[in-house]
Write the structure tokens for this entry.
Amino acid sequence: MFNKANNKNEKKTINFKEFVAICIAMYKLVLPKMLITALALLASALLIDWLL
């Protein structure tokens, strides 16, 4: 039982580190695209409001 608990804790730690690394990588990759998309949506929304 102790071994299983220890293994779970180790796996959680490894997974957490991997999760953080993946989050940082995704953040770096996705954030510029998200900002561009958000700006484009905002611009199109403002343009539609201006036209209407």
Remarks:
- The helical segments are 2-51.
- DSSP finds one helix and no strands in the chain.
- Residues 15-51 form one domain.
